[in-house]
Amino acid sequence: MPEIYPVGMAELRIARDPDILAAYGIGSCVIVAMYDPKSRIGGMAHIMLPDSTGISQERLNPRKFADTAVPLLYQTLSHAGCFKTSLIAKVIGGAEMFPPNEDLKNNIGSMNTAAAVKALEKLSIPIAAQDIGGRAGRSLELKLDSGKIHLTVLGESAKEL
Amino acid sequence: MQDISELRKDQLDALREVGNIGSGNACTALAQFLNRKIDMNVPQAKILPLNEMSTLIGGPEEMVIGIFLKVMGNISGRFLLLIPETTGVKLMQTLIPGSTVMKAAAMNDLEVSCMREVGNILAGAFLNALSVLTRTPMLNSLPSMAFDMAGALIDSVIADMAAVSDHVLMIETSFIESDENLKIHIFLMPDINSLGHLLDQLGVK
């Protein structure tokens, strides 16, 4: 039986076939999933914020920021025996949950997505699929036997990425 | 203070008293507004790990109505109401004559506006009491409303408060109406930058 490991906010986790990594109730956060189809090892970072610039080293949780979590996920997977050249990434989340008004201008979701994409480009990891933006929360499961992501969004039918 | 996890017990007690006074006022406002008797749970001031906030209301995938306001001034932060769908529907049916809404996903503009106004009234009442207590003028933003998974609503609200800490400070309470089981969760999350001033005004710096 595959185990399901939830990955909460500011957490990062890797696992291998046949297990499953999951993230539930994602709003402005962005999930970066990486998967190596050869070793069938993959991982997930549940990123809250785009940029760690200005955060002092001793207070920095690198799993929280796109610019630090993406390289950390890559390193963790490399150490676990992934083939770097066959790694693919999927990017999910980055919604704007609350409609903006005169006083509230939320764009943290799109900033998170942009920063995650930039960090992946820097590592030259191709983005195989994405489901980003919009106004609805998401839940997803990454199946490490296939690398497929099962995604559910309020008001939409479930999809595979 | 560097991190909210360094708050002392007497400071948390003072913050709980803020919750008491603020939610007492908000509870009265809600009771008058609905013309019903509303009970209030004992407020809590808690320092919670980031992922535990949604467990307070049934898990990250629990569908709820969220009403979010920013608090501005020398004491700043976030004010969030989380309302189960059944309560939201009852509130709308009570407050809007002729409303036939049965599902939060099917709310019309008037119903959305009504829920935002509920947020405005509760936040206003809460913050007025806090403003008097701390002799600090406080303003709240216009409210914004969404209906979705609790985890998704919460992460959007706490993301930028979480930059330097893996914990959030929240003053939390819930209102319950005795016979019809209305339930509203109120969260006030002060910004760490304004905590010094808040604690100073409460006499527990």
What do these coordinates show?
The complex is a heterodimer of chains A (161) and B (205). Chain A is α+β, with helices and mostly antiparallel strands and 161 residues long. Chain A is built from 2 helices and 10 strands. Chain A has helices at 66-79, 108-122; strands at 4-6, 12-16, 20-26, 30-36, 41-47, 88-93, 127-132, 138-143, 149-153, 159-160. Chain A has a 5-stranded mixed beta sheet with strand order 1-3-8-9-10, with no helix packed on it. With 205 residues, chain B is of the alpha+beta class. Chain B is built from 5 helices and 8 strands; from the N terminus they run H-E-E-E-E-H-H-E-E-H-E-E-H. In chain B, strands 1, 2, 3, 4, 5, 6, 7 and 8 form an 8-stranded antiparallel beta sheet that branches. In chain B, a hairpin with a 5-residue loop joins strand 7 and strand 8 (183-190). The longest helix of chain B is centred in the first third of the chain and has 26 residues, at 9-34. The relative contact order of chain B is 0.26. The model of chain B has no long low-confidence stretch (mean pLDDT 90). The A-B interface holds A 8-11, 24-29, 48-49, 55, 59, 61, 64, 95-104, 106, 108-109, 112, 135-139, 154-155 and B 2-3, 50-51, 54, 59-61, 63, 66, 68-70, 105, 141-142, 144-146, 148-157, 159-160, 162-166.
Topology:
The complex is a heterodimer of chains A (161) and B (205).
Chain A: E1 4-6, E2 12-16, E3 20-26, E4 30-36, E5 41-47, H1 66-79, E6 88-93, H2 108-122, E7 127-132, E8 138-143, E9 149-153, E10 159-160
Parallel strand pairs in A: 1-3, 6-7
Antiparallel strand pairs in A: 2-5, 3-8, 4-5, 4-6, 8-9, 9-10
Helix pairs in contact in A: 1-2
Chain B: H1 9-34, E1 38-40, E2 44-49, E3 63-73, E4 77-84, H2 85-95, H3 109-134, E5 138-140, E6 144-149, H4 150-158, E7 167-177, E8 183-190, H5 192-201
Helix pairs in contact in B: 1-3
